[in-house]
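thought: fold this chain, then report.
action: predict
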Amino acid sequence: MTQVLDTPLDSKAPPSPAERTARRRGLLEWVAIHSLGIAAALFFVLPFVFVLLTSLMSDSQALSRDLIPRTWEWGNYTKVFDTPGFLTWWRNTLVYAGLGTVLTVVSSIPVAYALAKFRFRGRSLALMLVISMMMLPPQVIIIPMYLFWAKQLDLSGTLWPLIIPMAFGDAFSIFLLRQFLTTIPDEYVDAAKVDGCGDLRTLLKVVLPMARPGIAAVALFQFFYAWNDYFGPQIYASENPGAWTLSYGLESFKGAHHTDWNLTMAATVLVMAPVILVFFFAQKAFVEGVTLTGVKG
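observation:
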């Protein structure tokens, strides 16, 4: 007679003390090995968590030592958007960052392509000039540039003195793209020219599809720079509140709500959120583009 087993065949026995000890030891070893990475992650994440939690507190609790909101005040973000001028600052920042990024990428690609793939007299000197422009602080030339844009062209109080120069290339973007384009084998360019492609068609049909990670890295760098730029709007647009960006308007917002730290933190979260989201969704292309720029000199 067949004996019927009461215990299911797929049931698992509870772990023995030795197995629990081995698992605990493995966890401790993992924490020890990655301790520096964990500490670095907490160093970057905890300030953002603090800002986010403070933005959801009430006015009185934001001034206390509490770390966790007693009541989650999601209406703080509505109050920030209801602040006069905040939506205008948001629109100006999108125009400045978006249009500036497009102009920088479009104007920098041909120069970087020429420095990477063309052979002409003075190419090394041109590259040295680009590198030297990277080393020149903007504060050094700000006075003559301001006099040119404000006195000669009468564009003070607008963001055009910051946007228009981006249509003529950016030294850092040109250098970064040039470094990436040197990683593309010359055989692809030569094969395209043998098939009858000119320089422009070779750039558009062959080089650009292969350079997408580098272009994405340059675009992200430029977008982050324009989105967080405080110095430029302060110089050219401070006299006109209708041309302020988020980075400059946030200083005015903090002055108007110097006791309402919850609203100040809510405005800070709204300024940081787009940058974090853009990097989160584009981090793969960004890391790949930055990494490959150093493969070949």
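thought: worth noting. The two ends are 80 Å apart (CA to CA).
final: tokens above.
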